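Pasting as-is:
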Amino acid sequence: MRRPRLELPGIPMHLTHRGVNRGATFIDDDDCESYMQALEIAALAQQVSIHAYVLMSNHVHLLVSTPNEGGVSRMMQAVGRRYVRAFNARHRRTGTLWEGRFKSCLVDSDRYLLTCMRYVELNPVRAAMVAAPWEHRWSSVHAHLGLHHDTRWTPHATFIALGADEDQRRATYRALLTESVSAVDLTTISDHMRQERALGSPRFQAMVEQALGRPAAIRRPGRPEAVADSNGNVL
């Protein structure tokens, strides 16, 4: 049985979608532009703000938020339908392109949002595709650093808080990008994404659990997941 996705209006969500059997989802720049057009149309329709993104050869990472319940899932369904049709027609292929549904986790703005932002935009560097994140064309890093205007990007309040003006926040974020994401944070983000839980402080996870009535913390090996009755009592 498919586990219900953790989604909360207004709470940032980090998501990734991979190609089936880790096959290519983007062959060239035309494919990337086609995907971003589909994403922009669907995001506008569902009132989803795109705070960070990167397109890799066989997967995509997004950091998004929306005031609408279920808006992210509806956006991704629309993107999938539109892009797969275009990709298959262009490359004269048939069948599925993505590896099932996308993976996602909610993100605590106070602790992990900037880390997730860097995780997303440093992906091409970790993959040894480029030496610096701004050398990768299909990334929100250019918008964050003011290198070019991006109509698909919406700065998150946490990014805006990095400086009193655009120049200051861009300089601060550029400095953050020169530091690689720690091994501990890489593992933490990966674990929460794989289990599709809420990435953040215990207080943040407790808020998510109370709001959705479902576990929000990752499960440790050998540790059974707590189940509560309708009155909130742990069984």
